[in-house]
Design brief:
With about 200 residues, this protein is α+β, with helices and mostly antiparallel strands. It has helices at about 5-10, 15-35, 45-60, 65-75, 80-100, 175-180, and strands at about 110-115, 125-130, 135-140, 150-155, 155-160, 165-175. The protein has a six-stranded antiparallel sheet, with no helix packed on it. It is globular and about 50 Å long. About 25% of the residues are buried. The model is unreliable at about 105-125 (pLDDT under 50).
Length: about 200
């Protein structure tokens, strides 16, 4: 499990002190790697991808100013257009979060729970949207440290039960950007759905 995985898990479990520590460690590592390529414009797209990743971690950790700084460095180079667009979207998110912090308003996360009708050990399927991180979480249970994480492509991460290899949690990154591009969201796994009796 990476430091970022530990940070996201701690955040979702409400362990804010631990999450902050893990986020800071993940940010330090990612920022160091990104800044090694800061002045190497010819290292695109690696340069802008690393800077985007570090900016996203800064945003997730609540350090909007550092996120803005890293985005500016990335955009000052020659990132591919798709990555430049993601960087601009991240900058909008950072500005939006800063606006709400400055005005003392708190954005409520969108939560919706759907009862699990087949009575399995996991009683509900929960959808949770993190506006700051722009991540949609779909959970059958609370995440836990023993789960295996697997990136399944298209910025989707699944967390698997270590014993059964069953998908228990899904994280869909850059969720709002996806909705701007298409109304369809296709997940790379199968599920069974039935009407509640």
């Amino acid at each position: 499990m990476t430091m970022l995985d530990k940070a996201l898990l701690a955040k979702r479990q409400g362990l804010s002190v631990e999450a902050h520590t893990f986020f800071q460690s993940a940010l330090e590592d990612e920022r160091a790697a990104a800044l090694e390529l800061k002045d190497q414009i010819s290292a695109e797209p690696s340069r802008s991808i690393l800077l985007r990743s570090a900016a996203n971690i800064a945003q997730l950790s609540g350090d909007g100013r550092e996120s803005e700084r890293l985005i500016a460095i990335a955009l000052a180079g020659d990132p591919p257009e798709d990555i430049a667009e993601e960087l601009r979207d991240l900058l909008v998110q950072a500005s939006f979060a800063r606006h709400h912090r400055t005005n003392g308003t708190k954005m409520d996360d969108v939560d919706a729970s759907i009862p699990n009708i087949n009575g399995a050990a996991h009683r509900e399927l929960k959808f949770h949207y993190d506006q700051i991180g722009d991540i949609l979480y779909i959970d059958r249970c609370k995440p836990y440290a023993e789960q295996e994480s697997e990136a399944v492509g298209d910025d989707i991460v699944v967390r698997l039960n270590p014993g059964t290899n069953e998908v228990e949690n899904v994280e869909i990154l850059f969720y709002s950007k996806r909705l701007q591009q298409t109304n369809d969201l296709i997940l790379p796994f199968f599920t069974e759905m039935r009407l509640a009796a």
